[in-house]
From TrEMBL:
This is Fatty acid desaturase. It comes from Dyadobacter chenwenxiniae. It is a multi-pass membrane protein. One of its GO terms (biological process) is fatty acid biosynthetic process. One of its GO terms (molecular function) is oxidoreductase activity, acting on paired donors, with oxidation of a pair of donors resulting in the reduction of molecular oxygen to two molecules of water. It holds the Pfam family FA_desaturase. Residues 72-314 form the Fatty acid desaturase domain. Keywords: Fatty acid biosynthesis, Fatty acid metabolism, Iron, Lipid biosynthesis, Lipid metabolism, Membrane, Oxidoreductase, Transmembrane, Transmembrane helix. GO terms for cellular component: membrane. The chain crosses the membrane at residues 47-67, 73-94, 216-242, 306-323.
Length: 343
């Protein structure tokens, strides 16, 4: 088996049936798997996905305070911008284009640190990065950790059920995980620590980073606008963290091929370009699947790409030293031939 086939921990219901077709679990199977994998009393190695969801649940008091105590329409507008645009764009900049695809390179650790902490921390890099490599290798096929063909809940709870790395990797295979993660700056476990904790990221480092990031941003927002603004922003971050878990289901046509000729040029899977995720987060998903290592995925004039604008800005001021831009190749190989066909 190839490394990509076993680097993730398989769910109890498996990736595929004996005949090779996608195994589509029932909702009860998915929920049972979800709660089993959050149980650190059963297995301490479940700590990372549990921490990810504790972050989400910890936002509920902030959201409640904002709605029932501090609510104003201007603050709602601020929450909308922060959750939909700032958090979404940062996810594309950091988790997607840098941590996973290395579409650009920072000058040094300072710019990497600044970019990593531009927003309230919600998603563990490890859970996103390793599983996303598998997603691209097996997009819409059995083994894709958030395969839209298996339904909404399969995708929504994938960060717990399908995305964590396997807990029994050999030392050489764990070193391959290290190669996929080292550039992110995430503090790693040794192999013996990995066998105990079941993760690449060291739990002490993860907890420390969480506390420092949240403390900094709460204090910053408090100094700007008091508890009202701080609760507004933290509630918005929690809202985004739930919403982002729905993206791949929508971004792959809810499991159906709904691609549009002249808009979606990658036909190897069901990924589609959607206007809203594209504009607010630079997530032109079909373009991204066509050129996964490109620091820009908004190739057409109307395809606003805020993530690309940030990367390009850092390049202009020296924070980013190299990047990959596939726009010229896209226009030459796909867009212009399509236009010529209909002239």
């Amino acid at each position: 088996m190839a490394f990509i086939d076993y680097v993730l921990q398989p769910p109890s219901y498996g990736w595929k049936k004996e005949n090779g077709e996608l195994a589509i679990p029932t909702h009860s199977q998915i929920l049972r798997e979800f709660f089993n994998r959050l149980n650190i009393f059963k297995d301490i190695r479940n700590w990372l996905p549990l921490m990810s969801w504790v972050k989400v649940l910890a936002m509920l008091p902030f959201l409640g305070l904002f709605i029932f105590k501090f609510f104003t329409w201007p603050l709602l507008a601020v929450a909308f911008v922060y959750s939909m645009i700032i958090m979404g764009t940062h996810g594309t900049i950091w988790h997607h284009r840098y941590c996973t695809h290395r579409a650009y390179k920072f000058k040094n650790g300072f710019w990497r640190f600044i970019t990593k902490n531009l927003t309230i921390s919600m998603i563990p890099e490890e859970i996103y990065v390793i599983s996303h490599h598998v997603h691209h290798a097996k997009s819409d096929q059995p083994g894709d950790p958030y395969n839209a063909k298996a339904g909404f809940l399969y995708c929504f709870l994938a960060d717990v059920n399908h995305q964590p790395i396997a807990k029994d990797l050999s030392e050489s295979d764990y070193n391959r995980v290290t190669l996929l993660m080292k550039h992110t700056g995430v503090e790693a476990n040794t192999y013996s620590q990995y066998l105990h904790w079941g993760s690449y990221v060291n739990p002490g480092a993860a907890l420390r980073g969480w506390i420092l990031n949240w403390s900094f941003w709460y204090l910053t927002f408090y100094l700007i606008g008091g508890h009202a603004l701080a609760c507004c922003m933290f509630g918005a971050a929690g809202f985004w963290a739930v919403g982002v878990r729905t993206f791949n289901y929508e971004g792959h046509g809810k499991g159906k091929n709904v691609q549009v000729k002249g808009v979606d040029f990658n036909t190897n899977d069901n990924s589609i370009n959607q206007v809203w995720p594209g504009i607010v987060a630079g997530e032109w998903h079909n373009n991204h699947h066509l050129y996964p290592k490109s620091a820009r995925s908004g190739f057409k004039p109307y395809q606003v790409d805020l993530a690309w604008y940030y990367i390009k800005f850092l390049h202009l001021i020296g924070g980013v030293i190299t990047y990959k831009d596939s726009k010229t190749d896209f226009l030459k190989r796909y867009h212009l031939p399509h236009l010529q066909k209909y002239e």
